């Protein structure tokens, strides 16, 4: 029961008049009944509003009837939610009265009054969020002055470590060939410019590879914008030679491939131009690996 009407979330008038007798032989009349409780505390139902009552007085039998367990020990009192087993309220003993705050202000209830760092975590931050195994070895072998001989365990994950040490998952390679005939899918890439031009003044290498046979064509270019004209020549020539039609081509988002002229050529001749995701060369891994192979071959042949 309470005498403060502002504590109620719901309140209704009593149909039948009742009263509570105080120790000084005075009476407080029950004028309403309702529910009390606001986050983060649970709701207590059927609480009486009593006039002239200056304190909030919980009824042990009332709490027990509403599914709460009450445990009294020498210096404290604990109220437990019987359905979950969790502690709802905990009060301390002052003289011969157990005092606890059912409706403490939620703003002050969550206020941090003291911060305490675990020593191992503190050293983890001091050493630039180094790996705990590394710090443990440094401590065991006495390699850092002042580093205490304590246990460094991976029992805490720092949000800073998760955010700034994250890496991409590995791209699994495909063991099966996804095409059934030559020219069904062509991979294309352009690498360069080379630091030294060739005798013919070429700085770039335009590489085209057939996905089915892995046959590769390499064209040397002086400028990047020569890619389309070179591909048009290749397109007409290779289809006549092989007797197959080009169905799809795959490249990265380089400006030499992703432009209006290249798109118009693809639309006119009716084949699909696929792109790998931005900043994801792994999706064009066939050509990236081929570029490395060609570069290694060229260096070996020049020596």
From TrEMBL:
Protein name, per record: Integrase catalytic domain-containing protein
A molecular function (GO) term: peptidase activity
Cross-referenced Gene3D superfamilies: Ribonuclease H-like superfamily/Ribonuclease H
Organism from which the protein derives: Iris pallida
Superkingdom to which the source organism belongs: Eukaryota
Keyword hit for Membrane: no
Pfam families: gag_pre-integrs, Pol_BBD, rve
PANTHER family documented for this protein: CYSTEINE-RICH RLK (RECEPTOR-LIKE PROTEIN KINASE) 8, TRANSPOSASE, PUTATIVE-RELATED
Keywords: Hydrolase, Protease
């Amino acid at each position: 029961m309470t005498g403060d009407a502002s504590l109620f979330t719901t309140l209704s008038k009593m149909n039948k008049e009742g009263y509570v007798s105080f120790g000084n032989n005075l009476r407080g009349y029950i004028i309403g009944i309702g529910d009390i409780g606001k986050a983060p505390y649970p709701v207590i139902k059927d609480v009486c509003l009593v006039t002239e009552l200056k304190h909030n007085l919980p009824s042990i039998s009332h709490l027990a009837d509403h599914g709460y367990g009450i445990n009294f020990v020498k210096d404290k009192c604990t109220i437990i939610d019987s359905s979950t087993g969790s502690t709802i309220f905990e009060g301390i003993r002052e003289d011969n009265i157990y005092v606890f705050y059912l409706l403490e202000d939620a703003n002050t209830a969550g206020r941090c009054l003291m911060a305490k760092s675990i020593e191992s975590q503190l050293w983890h931050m001091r050493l630039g969020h180094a790996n705990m195994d590394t710090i443990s070895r440094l401590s065991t072998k006495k390699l850092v002055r002042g580093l205490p001989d304590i246990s460094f365990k991976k029992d805490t994950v720092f949000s800073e470590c998760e955010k700034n040490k994250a890496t991409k998952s590995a791209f699994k390679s495909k063991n099966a060939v996804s095409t059934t005939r030559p020219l069904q899918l062509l991979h294309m890439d352009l690498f360069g410019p080379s630091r030294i031009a060739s005798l013919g003044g070429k700085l770039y290498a335009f590489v085209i590879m057939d996905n089915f046979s892995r046959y590769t064509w390499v064209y040397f270019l002086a400028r990047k914008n020569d890619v389309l004209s070179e591909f048009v020549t290749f397109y007409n020539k290779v289809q006549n030679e092989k007797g197959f039609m080009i169905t799809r081509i795959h490249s990265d988002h380089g400006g030499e491939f992703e432009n209006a002229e290249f798109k118009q050529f693809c639309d006119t001749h009716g084949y699909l131009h696929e792109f790998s995701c931005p900043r994801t060369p792994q999706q064009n891994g066939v050509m990236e690996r081929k570029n490395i192979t060609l570069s290694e071959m060229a260096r070996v042949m020049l020596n």
